[in-house]
Every structure is written in C-alpha cells, then in structure tokens.
Design goal:
InterPro entries: Aromatic_Lyase, Fumarase/histidase_N, HutH, L-Aspartase-like, Phe/His_NH3-lyase_AS. The chain is mainly alpha-helical. The protein is 56% helix and 6% strand. A 3-stranded antiparallel β-sheet has the order 4-6-7. The chain has a two-stranded parallel sheet with strand order 1-2. A two-stranded antiparallel sheet has the order 3-5.
C-alpha cells in the first residue's frame, strides 16, 4: 500500500517505487535529509582542493570522452561545464511526460546526495526547489545511448538549472529562465565538475523504468481479476487453480496467482468442476497461474534491480573523500538497467498476449459457452465487440515488435572511446509503451467480461469478480446496442492506474 506521507525525504532511507510515484505523479514535496548535506559539502570541498592542487582529473581539468587527455586550465573550468551542457543537449523527439521528468529529477537528487559527485549542495537544493515549486524541464525522449549514462536528456535538465533551455510551469511551455523566475527560483552558475555530475548517470532510463514497473506490478493484479471474471463467465473449471498442482511446481508467482484466482472466485455459482461441462479449459484460462505467475516473477526481479539502481551512484569520476581517491570507472553504463527493461517488455507483453486470447474466447460464438455472438443479442444489425477484439489484437501485435530487445545492440561513439553502449533508455521507453498498450488490452478484456456477466447473471459472480465487475460498471454503463466504445476503453485503462483504485485493488486482494 502507498505510504501516507506529506513529504518524501531523500537521503535518509533507500527510495522505493512508491516514493517515486508519490513525487512524480502525486506531486508530494521533497525534503533533503540533514545527514546527507554534510556528505555533499565534504565531497565539494575535496573537489576544490583538487583544483587548488592543479590535479589532472577527468571532467574536472580535462575534456570529455575522446578529449579526456586534453588538459583544461583551472581558469576555464566553469566554461568547460557550461560548454558541456550546451553541446550535449541534443535530445530529439517528443518531450517526456511530466511524471517521468519529475522522477528523473528525484532520482538524480538521490544519487548526488551520496556525496561521491563533487557537486555543491546549492545545486541539489535548486533541483529540489524545482520539484517543490513545479518547474518541469522539457526533456526530449530520444537521443540517449545509455552510456555514458543519459547524457543528452540529462543535459536538458541541466539547461533549466542554469536558466536556459525550456520548461513547463503552470501548464505552459516556456523559456527555462522565465519558468525559474516565475517560480521564484534562482538559476545556478555551474562550477567545476558540476555539469558532468548532473548528466553522467542512468536516471532517465531508471525513472522511465521505475514508473513502468510500478504500473506493471499493478497491472499483474488487474490481470488476475480480469482473467478470473473471464474464466467465470465462460464456466471455467475450478480444479486448475487448486493448490495441489501448484505445490509441486513451486514457482512463487504461479502459486500466488492460483491463490488469487481461487480467492477472487470464492462463492461463484458459475465456476464448474471437472467433467461437469468439460474436463479441462483452454490454455488461456487453465494456464493463467503459470503464465501470469512467470510474468510476476520477472517483475519482482525487475523491481529488485530498479531498487538497487535508484539508490546507486552512477557518475564518473567518483569522489571518495575518506580514501583520498578520485576514480574514473564505468558506473554510468546502463547495462544493469537495459537487460531488466527488455525483460519488462517481454513479461508485460505476455500478460497482454494471453488477455487478448481470452477476449477472443469471450466474443467468438464457437468458443464462448453459448454467449451471444460478439456479445450482442442482435448480431448483424449490431457488430457488438467484434472490433474491440481487433483493437486488442493490434496492440499485442505492436507489442511483439516493441519487445525486440534493445540491449543486444551497440553503436560505438566518441571516436570509439565509448565502444560499447547499453541502449538502456530505448529499452525502458519501449517497455513503458508496452505497459501502456497492455493496460488498454486489459481494459478491453474487463469491458468484454463485464458485458458477458450481464448475460450469465452478475448475482452469480464470486466475491472478487463481483467487485471488479462493479468497478467496471462504476465507469462504464451496460449498453446493449452498438455504441462508441473507445473512450470507455481509455477511461478503464486510466482508472486502473489511478492511485485510489490501486489501493482498493490491493485491499481486496488482502481480504
């Protein structure tokens, strides 16, 4: 369940997906833990000492990428950072949504507060002010290779911190400096190391992935409910979900889904026993625990990887004050996120795939247990849900193309200095699109199964299926004649993501 807190404090505890959602979507305020401020200050003091001692340090007194061997005098250190941001802000395409950008800022703040980046506390506090006062940088979606981190998109964030670029404020897109002025935030003049500290990291792919994973974990719950309703109205065989089968193949996700379906259909007058109508159901009904469960296990793995990455330092170079070291390494490389994001694509695509097959069973007169053809009583005059299944089929087909892994590709950059990159941000963006598509497929299944329930008798539904049927009817009235449905599909998909609906769903599962 979501934490009930007015502020999300960054630095005192590891960030969770719930924290990201609260800040990104619910606009909760952000506060910096006091104990982290000293770490940031000590790291900055160490950088100042390196400058005074005229040490040769990557990104501090050198150029970047292939120019890492080019020495930059101290008196040009500030210009070096400004040039870095302006030259690297090469994003392409449509802007990221507001929630994604807010998640990006939150995750970047969290990484900087570990005190290994050499940035001034003032810069971090400016980013927190942007979150709390509603200044959202315009960050294009495309242009990142996922190593060295998310350079191009994060540079668009840094531009606004400097009072440049573009941003959204009070719903209007405008000059970044104007947005900062209207919000009462003073732009920052970047100093040595700070530009690199702002843009060298994996926070864009991780932010996209965190929100997509949160939505996917909730979608897995909705998938259990919608599949249970479909199974019930198709007079499914209950024995497939009994615990004996799943005890001897003890995958955690499979056992959880079987338990959920049994709980959701408790009290049903529509579920059948083996041999009562048929001995066994088609795979899209009978194998829900195995299919949904495999996706759930994948999502748990992805969640765990995201938590590690959200609470990591992914800069280069890294400052280790206590050890008196500056180390140029590869924590910016996005591979630890690229693979989970490709896995997320596959896991969620499968939830949609099997959902579409259940939709087909609901509308197809050869498969739907004597329900009306395409769930309409006056077939011919009415087409019913014929084209709703087309739409679902189109989305799952699109998902199959999007699920092709991005992480298997790499194009060398920076004159082959950066000769292997992750494409992790592409992987995350594709995963997020698949999650969006899957919500619409699930909405079509719920819409269809709820209509089928009208013919079988809603009063015969189980406790949980009655709840999800009622949820659907709160937003979508039953209409027998043909009518325009696309807005209903969108409304259901949006309502499934709503934070209050998510809480209610989890409370139902806990009963």
């Amino acid at each position: 369940m979501l934490l009930n807190k007015e502020k999300v404090q960054v630095g005192s505890f590891p960030l969770t997906l719930e924290d990201v959602v609260l800040v990104a979507r619910n606009k909760h305020k952000v506060d910096i833990a006091e104990e982290q401020k000293e770490k940031v200050n000590r790291s900055r003091e160490y950088v100042e000492k390196l400058l005074d001692d005229k040490k040769v340090v990557y990104g501090l007194t050198t150029g970047f990428g292939k120019f890492s061997d080019t020495y930059i005098p101290n008196d040009q250190a500030k210009n070096l950072q400004i040039n870095l941001i302006r030259s690297h802000a090469c994003g392409i395409g449509e802007p990221f949504s507001e929630d994604v950008v807010r998640a990006i800022i939150l995750l970047r703040v969290n990484a900087l507060l570990y005190g290994h980046s050499g940035i001034r506390l003032k810069v971090v506090e400016t980013m927190v002010e942007m979150l709390n006062k509603g200044v959202t940088p315009m960050i294009p979606e495309q242009g990142s290779l996922g190593a060295s981190g998310d350079l191009a998109p994060l540079s668009h964030l840094a531009l606004v911190i400097m009072g440049e670029g573009e941003a959204y404020f009070n719903g209007e897109r405008m000059d970044g400096g104007k947005a900062m002025r209207l919000a009462g935030i003073s732009p920052v003049s970047l100093e040595a190391k700070e530009g690199l500290a702002l843009i060298n990291g994996t926070q864009v792919m991780t932010a996209v992935g965190a929100l997509a994973c949160w939505d996917a974990l909730n979608l897995a719950n909705w998938a259990d409910y919608t599949s249970a309703l479909t199974t019930e109205v198709l007079r499914g065989v209950r024995q497939a979900f009994e615990p004996e089968t799943h005890r001897i193949r003890p995958h955690a996700g499979q056992q959880l889904v079987a338990k959920n379906i049994t709980k959701i259909t408790r009290g049903s007058q529509l579920m059948t026993n083996q041999g009562e109508i048929r001995v066994q159901d088609a795979y899209s009904l009978r194998c829900v625990p195995q299919v949904h469960g495999a996706s759930r296990d994948a999502l748990q793995h992805i969640h765990d990887k995201l938590i590690v990455e959200m609470n990591s330092v992914t800069d280069n170079p890294l400052i280790f004050v206590d050890e008196d070291k500056v180390i140029s390494g590869g924590n910016f490389h996005g591979q630890p996120m690229a693979l989970p994001m490709d896995y997320l694509s596959i896991a969620v695509a499968e939830l949609a795939n099997i959902s579409e097959r259940r939709i087909e069973r609901l509308v197809n007169p050869q498969l739907n247990d004597q329900l009306p053809d395409f769930l309409t009583k006056e077939g011919g005059m009415n087409s019913g849900l014929m084209i709703a299944q087309y739409a679902a089929a189109s989305l799952v087909s699109e998902n199959k193309s999007l699920a092709h892994p991005a992480s298997v590709d790499s194009i060398p950059s920076s004159a082959n200095q950066e000769d292997h990159v992750s494409m992790g941000t592409i992987a995350a963006r594709k995963a997020a699109k698949i999650v969006q598509n899957a919500y619409h497929v699930m909405a079509i299944e719920l819409f269809s199964a709820a209509r089928a329930a009208e013919y079988k008798g809603p009063e015969k539904l189980g406790i949980g299926t009655n709840w999800v049927y009622s949820f659907c009817r709160q937003h979508v009235p039953h209409q027998e004649e043909d009518h325009v449905m696309y807005n209903y599909f969108k409304q259901l998909a949006d309502e499934m993501k709503d934070i209050e609906a998510v809480k209610a769903l989890k409370e139902q599962l806990a009963v």
